[in-house]
Structure formats: C-alpha cells, structure tokens
Write a structure and sequence with these properties.
This protein is mainly alpha-helical. The chain has helices at residues 15-28, 81-99, 106-125, 130-142, 146-161, 166-176, 181-191, 208-215, 228-240, and strands at residues 9-13, 32-36, 47-52, 55-60, 68-69. Helix 4 packs antiparallel against helix 5 (146-161), helix 5 (146-161) crosses helix 9 (228-240) and helix 8 (208-215) packs across helix 9 (228-240). The radius of gyration is 18 Å and the shape is globular.
Amino acid sequence: MREQSVDCLVAIGGGSTTGLAKALAVRTGLPQVIVPTTYAGSEVTSVLGETEDGRKTTRSGPHILPETVVYDVDLALGLPVAVSVTSAVNAMAHAVEALYAPKVDPEAREDLLRAARLAGDCLGAVGMGLHHKLCPTLGGAFDMPHAATHTVVLPHVMAYNAPAVPEVMFRIAQALGTDDAARGVHDLVVGVAGPTSLRELDMAEADLAPAAGLATAKPYPNPPEPERQGVEILLVDAWHGRRPAPRPEGR
C-alpha cells in the first residue's frame, strides 16, 4: 500500500473486508470508504478485532471509525441465503447485547441493511458483554466462522443472561411474538435453516472447556458476571444444538 502511494482505502465486502480496511487505516491514518455487502455492521463501529497467535484482541477509538459508508442494496442481492441468515443474526446479536448492551426480495434486504446499520450503531455506542467476548474467543482461538458462530451462540447467551435481565428479554420476546426471547431467536434461526450447533461448524467437543476458561479469564461487564462452569454448560448446549432452556442465574 505504501509502495503504491495509496491515499484512500475503499472496502467492498463483508465484515472481514471492512476489518482489513480498519487495520490499514489505524496504522496509516488513511480515510476509509466502506461499501457493505453483508449485514455485519462493522462499518459504523470504532472497534477493530485482530487475531494473533490464536488470540483475538479488540481495540477501539475514533481513528478506527470509517469516514464514509455507502449502502447499495443491489450489491447485497447476490449474497447467498445461508450467509444472509448468519450475517443477519450476527446483526441481531449487536442489537440484543445493546439492550443489556427462504429467498428474500430487495425490500427485505433493504430492511436488513438499515437494521444492520442501526445495530452496528448500538455495538459502537455501548460496552460488549458475554456474547461478544465468547464469540471472538471461539473465532480467534479455535478458528470458528464469525457470523455462523454468533448465530449459534446468541440464543444460549440470552438464556444465560435472562434471569438477570428479565425486562430486557420480555421486550425482545414481544418483538419476536413469542413468550421466551432465547427460544424465539433459536426458533427463528431454525425456521430459516440457519446453523444451530457448534458441532456442525466443526468445533471439537474437547475445546469447549478451554473456550469457557478463555472467555471468563478476565472480568468484563455482563448481567450476570460470567462464571466458568455456567459458560461451559452454555457452550455444551450450543455444541449439541439444543433448544435453550430457562436456567437459574449464572448456571
């Protein structure tokens, strides 16, 4: 990039493409023009995640936030349905955390782009809880696919957190037209043929306990405070693809 005297970064693609632009921008100070083709929401956050030696770390700051974002629904029309599903649930994860932090047509994809943008705003404006600690841990340490992992894990983190934030889960359940928020998200994923288990994403069962340890090694805000045994149980349920069940707080 320096050899070619580049004076601007233009990224057309999903969250990984946007992340690369951010990584280059933070090292060079170059302005960014981001054209999203998925529903990652990364284009409106000042957060950068990078993996080195099997560990994913994140940093944030105003110098990371892209200066210009262009949304064009036509560029999202070719996104495969399976990728659309996991990307959209990944965006839903941003919105869910912010509260306590078949073929679709162009109109539906327009709605998804708008929703992903707003969900990305949520992620950039508030701290990240257990879900956004756990999924990057799985991605960085165990090479799990980003959006698909978010899709599988989100309902189980919601079930884990539900006893501590019942009013939040009630609002989500109302929006989904169901009586249980975590199960509602799980059923939504099932209904659109999205992934529901870490096993189908090729995560080894033997990695569940180490992953729980990594995800609870340092304290961070979450209702309730993450506890290793409870997080391991959460991961076991996610690995098997079980429908989330109500659980006592922190267990």
